[in-house]
Design brief:
- By secondary structure, the protein is of the alpha/beta class.
- It folds into two domains: 137 residues, Rossmann fold; 151 residues, Glucose-6-phosphate isomerase like protein, domain 1 (Rossmann fold, 3-Layer(aba) Sandwich).
- Helices cover 47% and strands 15% of the residues.
- The strands form two sheets. The protein has a five-stranded parallel beta sheet with strand order 2-1-3-4-5, with helices on both faces. A four-stranded parallel beta sheet has the order 7-6-8-9.
- Helix 4 links the parallel strand 1 and strand 2.
- The longest helix has 22 residues.
- The chain is globular and about 55 Å long.
- It starts with a helix and ends with a helix.
């Protein structure tokens, strides 16, 4: 099936295209929120959230660890580690404000007298944050959480700029974001997003990168799942070389559908670069196709955001090729409904 105006209108029933197209606006507005400061005596940082709200924490973790010696952890669960204390900064992210796992984590952080920052559009998180006088960052509502990354990530990044933990973002970076979005939104043959979507359509993508790009390929996996209703798998090098490289024998029906995609940052450890070359050569004889993707950007932040933007558009176009609505999440809604049964 061809990707064109007609197919987009037919399957994109909730107009996710416009949300993706407005991503530069979300990023710029998010970074320019007025963020109050809090005490600076925290010694460790925890991000807690689920799904689209957690990816911002994943990206922030690698950036902070690349710049400072502060340990950072991302928690996707109902609980928090036992080591949290009054010297822990806990950043609670829930786009809806009603994510039950995140609310549970918040309550534990509050009991342990952690410093807390809450990011949400509304819901229970807003109520309890205001009641307990936590720093609350209110972001715009009305979109799927997975389309709100710009608002979930950039206000928190701005906070860490104010804490002198991360470097300020220059205006030129937001111009690059706009350029990338404009490129990927033109669904022609020269569009990298449509090209990759067509490659992986009706196939199974295996996504590989170096460790620091893991948040980017994890974002691809979650977006391909929610938007495209498709499977994909992710792993990082060098870890993949110590186990998964031996997987390319069975089942043969699976391997006939595999597209192995290696994401190249250009800033990998030299040994990792060599591993990517050798690994891609080894498995090229065993799978349908091996692709290498060199990503743009000068800094780690730029490379991660480029990768996220590209993955979002790929998952969107793959949804159209799969003839499904990228916004619809029927099974997630069924699960939420079933979880509420029997509750007072």
């Amino acid at each position: 099936m061809e990707i064109n105006n007609s197919s987009l209108k037919k399957y994109d029933k909730s107009d996710m295209f416009s949300l993706l197209k407005n991503f530069p606006k979300h990023c710029f507005e998010g970074y320019n929120f007025s963020i109050p400061e809090i005490r600076k005596d925290f010694e460790k940082i925890i991000f807690t959230g689920m799904g689209g709200s957690a990816i911002a924490g994943d990206v922030m973790k690698v950036l902070i660890e690349d710049e400072t010696e502060i340990p950072v952890f991302v928690v996707r669960d109902y609980s928090l580690p036992k080591y949290i204390d009054s010297k822990t900064l806990v950043i609670v992210e829930s786009y809806s404000g009603n994510t039950e796992e995140t609310i549970s984590s918040y309550e534990i952080a509050n009991e342990k007298k952690c410093s807390i920052i809450c990011v949400s559009s509304n819901g229970e998180i807003e109520k309890i944050a205001n009641y307990n006088h936590n720093l609350f960052i209110k972001i715009p509502s009305g979109m799927p959480p997975r389309c709100a990354f710009g608002y979930l990530f950039f206000p928190v990044y701005k906070f860490f700029v104010q804490m002198n933990i991360l470097p300020p973002i220059k205006k030129q970076f937001f111009e690059k974001i706009e350029k990338w979005v404009n490129e990927f939104s033109l669904y022609d043959k020269n569009n990298k997003a449509t090209e990759i979507a067509n490659k992986i359509h009706k196939n199974i993508p295996l996504l590989y990168s170096e460790n620091r790009l893991f948040p980017g390929i994890l974002r691809w996996k979650t977006q391909i799942a929610e938007n495209s209703k498709s499977f994909s798998f992710v792993n990082v090098l060098p870890e993949m070389n110590h186990n998964e490289i031996m997987s390319f024998y069975f089942p043969k029906l699976f391997l006939k559908k595999v597209i192995a995609l290696f994401i190249i940052s250009g800033i990998e450890n030299e040994r990792v670069k060599k591993r990517i070359d050798i690994t891609s050569n080894i498995i090229s004889q065993k799978v349908k196709e091996v692709l290498k993707l060199n990503i743009e950007g000068e800094t780690l932040l730029e490379k991660l955001i480029y990768l996220i933007i590209l993955g979002d558009w790929i998952s969107y176009y793959l949804a159209i090729l799969n003839k499904v609505d990228p916004t619809e999440i029927k099974e997630i809604n069924i699960l939420k409904k079933e979880m509420k049964k029997g509750e007072k």
